[in-house]
Backbone:
C-alpha cells in the first residue's frame, strides 16, 4: 500500500489510504513541492503547490529537493471522555517527506491518509540564522477537478462566521472560511478544513482562478501572517472525500484524529449536559442584560430558573448580564466589563448556595466584547471567582465587528486585529488553559472555528461559530434551509451551541416579532441533529410548561453519545441522524427538512437486532408548516425493531424526533 520510493534523485513519492481508496502523490518539480490526490483513480486534487514564504528569512517554497521520506501505518482506537461517539478509530497511512538544500532538512511535509480523507502539515525545524520568522505567505493550494458546487460563507466579513451559507459554483468564491463543502459533477462530496489550529492564523481559502483555492492566512494588523519562533508545525490542512453527503459527517472524525491526545489527564470533572438560562428573554427583549428595572439576572429571576432546572432535570442554568459592564454601549465599552463584580441585585453567594442545594450548577458568562486586554488582565481571578461559586462551565463571548479587536502593540499604540488571526488564536487558547486550571469547561461564542482541539483540551466543550437560534429572535431569521445545511458544513468541524428548543412559535407576538422558520417537531429534531455536549433548552420556562408532552423529549434526550450514525441527507435539503445514548441502550433519531416537505423511508437497521423498542415519536401534525402552522405536532408511541422501515412525513420546514427505548431486558 505504501509505495514510497525516494532518494536524492527520485522526486516522486506516493502513499495510499489503508484500503487504497485515496492516493496522495508528492513530487518536487523545478525545486517546488507539489501534491495530488485521487480517489479510486479519479482526480480530486490536481498538482497543487506547497510551501511557505517568510518576510524575513529564505522561503521554503522553491529550490528544494527531497532529502528522504518515511512511511508508517497506524490503526488505533481511542476513547472520548464525552462526544458524539465513545470510540474513535484512527486508521491511516502516513508519509513524511523531508525537503531541503545541500542535504539539510529545512521543511518536512507530513501526510496522513485515511480512506475518507487526509490531512497534511508542514513541520519546520529551527533555522539557526533566523530565530524568529514571520510567515508572509502559505502557498498551499487545492487545485480542484472542476467548477464544483460549493457551500460556503465569505471570510473577513463583519459578523465573523455568522452568515447564511451561499450555494454557488466554486468559481463564485472570493475568500471563504472553512469548513468549505463541495460537490463534484461526478457525485463526490468534499470538505476542506483544518485541524489543530494552535499558535497560527486561521486559514481562509482564496479563489485564485482555474478552480483553484489557495490558503490565505488571516494577517496581523502589521501584515505578518504568522509570527514564529524556532521550530514550528502548522495546523493540518484537511480534505474529506465521500460519495454521499452524510459520508462527510462520518469522515469528520478525521479532524479529531489529527489532534494530539488529551493533555488534561483526568477529565471526569468535565460534565456534558443540558442547560436552561436567563438568555432568550433578553434576545426577545423581555428583559435586559443592563442593570435597571428590567434586569434579567436578578436573584429572584435566577432562582426561578434554578427551580425549573431542578424540577425537570437540567444540570445547568446560564446567567447572562450578571456582572458590571453591560450598561451603555457594551460592544464599544469592552474595558468596562468586570468579571468579579456582580450587579447588586445578583446575589451570587446566595445563588451558588441555592443552586447547590437543588443539585444544579450556574453556568457562568464572560462577555468580553472583544476587550482582550481587559479580559486577560482579569483572567485568573475571573476563573477563580466562578469556581468559588461552584461554576463548572462558562460561556464566553466576543461580540465585536471582525477586524476591530483592539490590541496595544509594542510601541503602546492601539491597533485592530481580526477575530481569527494568530493573536486571537493565542487568546482563545489562553482562556481554555486558564479555565482548565480551575476545572472549568468553556463554551465559546464568537469563537475561532473548531479544529478538533477538544481532543487535547476536553474542557473546550462547545462553541458557536455560525448563525445560531438567536438570529431567529431579532433578524429576518435563518430560513428553513439553514439547519439542513449546518450538518454538512459548520458541524463537520465539531459541536455547536446552537441553542435549540424554542416552543413559542405560533403566538401572536412570536409571529409578529420573530422569524423562527421551523415547526415544533423540527425544534426537537435539532437536539439530535446538532451535536453539543452542552445543549440548551433555550425557551422560557413558561413556554415549556405550556407544552409538557413535547417538552418530554427535551427532558429525555441526552447530550452525550455512545455512537452516531448519519443515515441520510443532502446538503441544504434534509438530514436524518441517529445516536445512541452513552448512559443507556436508548437510541434517538432526528430528521429535519428545508422548506420542502418530504416523505422519508428510514431503515431502522441501527437498532440492536432481535430487540423490540418502544418508539416515542414527535412529528409534524398533518397541518404543520413552518410558516402557516408551526406548532402542530403529533406525539405517539409505536413498537418497532431493526427490521422495520419507518415512513417519516416531514412538513415543509418540519422535522421529527424519536426516542427508542428497548422493551425487553437484554
Ligand atoms: C452573542 C452570543 O451568541 C449570545 O448568545 C449572547 O447572548 C450575546 N452575545 C451576549 O453576550
Residues:
Amino acid at each position: 500500500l505504501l509505495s514510497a520510493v525516494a532518494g536524492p534523485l527520485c522526486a516522486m513519492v506516493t502513499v495510499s489510504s489503508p484500503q487504497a481508496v485515496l492516493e496522495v502523490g508528492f513530487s518536487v518539480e523545478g525545486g517546488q513541492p507539489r501534491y495530488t490526490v485521487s480517489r479510486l483513480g479519479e482526480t480530486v486534487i490536481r498538482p497543487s503547490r506547497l510551501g511557505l514564504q517568510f518576510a524575513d528569512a529564505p522561503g521554503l517554497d522553491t529550490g528544494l529537493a527531497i532529502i528522504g521520506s518515511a512511511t508508517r501505518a497506524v490503526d488505533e482506537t481511542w476513547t472520548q471522555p464525552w462526544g458524539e461517539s465513545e470510540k474513535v478509530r484512527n486508521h491511516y497511512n502516513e508519509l513524511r517527506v523531508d525537503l531541503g538544500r545541500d542535504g539539510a532538512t529545512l521543511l518536512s511535509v507530513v501526510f496522513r491518509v485515511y480512506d475518507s480523507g487526509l490531512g497534511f502539515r508542514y513541520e519546520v525545524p529551527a533555522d539557526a540564522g533566523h530565530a524568529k520568522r514571520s510567515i508572509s505567505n502559505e502557498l498551499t493550494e487545492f487545485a480542484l477537478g472542476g467548477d464544483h458546487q460549493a457551500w460556503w460563507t465569505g471570510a473577513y466579513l463583519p459578523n465573523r462566521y455568522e452568515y447564511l451559507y451561499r450555494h454557488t459554483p466554486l468559481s463564485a468564491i472570493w475568500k471563504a472560511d472553512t469548513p468549505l463543502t463541495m460537490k463534484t459533477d461526478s457525485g463526490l462530496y468534499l470538505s476542506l478544513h483544518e485541524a489543530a489550529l494552535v499558535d497560527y492564523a486561521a486559514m481562509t481559502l482564496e479563489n485564485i482562478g482555474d478552480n483553484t483555492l489557495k490558503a490565505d492566512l488571516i494577517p496581523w494588523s502589521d501584515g505578518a501572517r504568522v509570527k514564529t519562533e524556532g521550530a514550528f508545525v502548522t495546523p493540518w490542512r484537511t480534505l474529506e472525500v465521500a460519495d454521499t453527503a452524510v459520508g462527510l459527517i462520518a469522515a469528520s472524525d478525521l479532524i479529531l484524529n489529527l489532534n494530539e491526545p488529551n493533555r488534561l489527564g483526568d477529565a471526569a470533572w468535565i460534565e456534558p449536559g443540558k442547560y436552561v438560562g436567563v438568555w432568550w428573554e433578553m434576545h426577545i427583549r423581555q428583559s435586559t442584560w443592563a442593570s435597571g428595572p428590567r434586569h434579567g439576572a436578578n436573584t429572584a429571576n435566577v432562582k426561578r430558573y434554578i427551580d425549573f432546572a431542578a424540577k425537570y432535570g437540567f444540570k445547568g442554568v446560564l446567567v447572562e448580564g450578571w456582572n458590571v459592564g453591560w450598561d451603555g454601549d457594551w460592544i464599544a465599552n469592552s474595558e468596562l466589563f468586570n468579571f468579579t463584580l456582580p450587579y447588586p441585585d445578583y446575589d451570587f453567594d446566595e445563588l451558588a448556595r441555592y443552586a447547590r442545594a437543588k443539585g444544579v450548577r450556574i453556568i457562568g458568562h464572560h462577555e468580553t466584547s472583544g476587550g482582550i486586554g481587559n479580559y486577560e488582565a482579569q483572567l485568573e481571578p475571573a476563573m477563580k471567582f466562578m469556581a468559588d461559586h461552584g461554576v463548572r462551565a462558562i460561556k464566553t463571548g466576543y461580540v465585536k465587528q471582525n477586524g476591530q479587536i483592539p490590541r496595544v502593540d509594542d510601541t503602546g499604540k492601539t491597533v485592530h486585529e481580526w477575530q481569527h488571526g494568530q493573536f486571537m488564536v493565542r487568546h482563545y487558547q489562553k482562556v481554555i488553559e486558564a479555565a482548565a486550571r480551575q476545572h472549568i469547561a468553556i463554551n465559546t461564542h464568537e469563537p475561532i472555528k473548531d479544529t478538533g482541539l477538544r481532543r487535547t483540551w476536553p474542557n473546550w466543550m462547545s462553541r458557536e461559530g455560525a448563525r445560531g437560534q438567536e438570529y431567529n429572535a431579532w433578524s429576518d431569521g435563518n430560513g428553513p434551509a439553514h439547519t439542513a445545511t449546518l450538518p454538512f458544513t459548520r458541524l463537520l468541524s465539531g459541536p455547536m451551541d446552537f441553542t435549540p428548543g424554542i416552543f413559542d412559535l405560533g403566538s401572536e407576538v412570536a409571529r409578529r416579532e420573530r422569524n423562527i422558520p421551523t415547526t415544533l417537531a423540527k425544534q426537537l429534531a435539532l437536539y439530535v441533529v446538532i451535536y453539543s455536549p452542552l445543549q440548551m433548552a433555550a425557551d422560557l420556562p413558561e413556554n415549556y410548561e405550556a407544552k409538557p408532552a413535547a417538552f418530554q423529549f427535551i427532558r429525555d434526550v441526552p447530550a452525550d453519545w455512545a455512537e452516531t450514525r448519519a443515515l441520510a441527507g443532502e446538503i441544504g435539503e434534509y438530514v436524518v441522524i441517529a445516536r445512541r445514548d452513552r448512559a443507556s441502550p436508548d437510541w434517538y433519531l432526528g430528521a429535519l427538512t428545508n422548506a420542502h416537505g418530504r416523505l422519508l423511508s428510514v431503515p431502522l437497521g441501527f437498532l440492536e437486532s432481535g430487540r423490540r423498542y418502544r418508539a416515542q415519536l414527535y412529528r409534524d401534525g398533518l397541518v404543520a408548516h413552518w410558516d402557516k402552522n408551526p406548532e402542530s405536532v403529533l406525539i405517539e408511541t409505536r413498537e418497532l425493531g431493526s427490521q422495520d422501515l419507518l415512513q417519516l412525513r416531514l412538513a415543509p420546514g418540519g422535522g421529527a424526533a424519536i426516542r427508542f427505548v428497548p422493551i425487553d431486558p437484554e
User: Anything to note?
Assistant: Residues 4-10 have pLDDT under 50 and may be disordered.
